[in-house]
Amino acid sequence: MARIESNIPLAARVAEQLRERIGSGEFTVGTKLPTELELARELGVSRNSVREGVRALVHAGMLRAYIEMMHTGEPVHTWPVG
């Protein structure tokens, strides 16, 4: 996937990219998404931008996140919801 470039805030662009990938069927209900670090590298943005974009989609009800508190407290299982 190409790096994201635009005047739109990075987190919003990340959220839009993920929406498109969910809509295209690349990420289906119950499928674990790549990690924040993997998405950040792929999209050429910071992990924080990915985290904010994912958080926006969780808030919108498009993604569900399971938090693993034992290690980092970061979402380790994130998947689209139907």
Short description:
This protein is of the alpha+beta class and 82 residues long.
How would you describe this protein?
The chain is of the alpha+beta class and 82 residues long. The chain has a single domain, classed as Arc Repressor Mutant, subunit A, CATH 1.10.10. It has three helices and two strands; from the N terminus they run αααββ. The chain has a two-stranded antiparallel sheet with strand order 1-2. α1 (10-23) crosses α3 and α2 (36-43) packs across α3 (47-59). The longest helix is centred in the first third of the chain and has 14 residues, at 10-23. The termini are far apart. It comes from Kibdelosporangium lantanae.
Q: How do the strands of the widest beta sheet line up side by side?
A: 1-2
Alpha-beta content class: alpha+beta
Q: Which CATH class is shown?
A: Mainly Alpha
Major pleated sheet: 2 strands, antiparallel
The radius of gyration over CA amounts to 12 Å
Kindly state the number of beta strands. Answer: 2
Query: How far apart, in Å, are the first and last alpha carbons?
Result: 24 Å
Principal-axis shape equals globular
Strand content is 5-15%
Domain HTH gntR-type: 8-79
Pfam families: GntR
Keywords: DNA-binding, Transcription, Transcription regulation
Protein name: FadR/GntR family transcriptional regulator
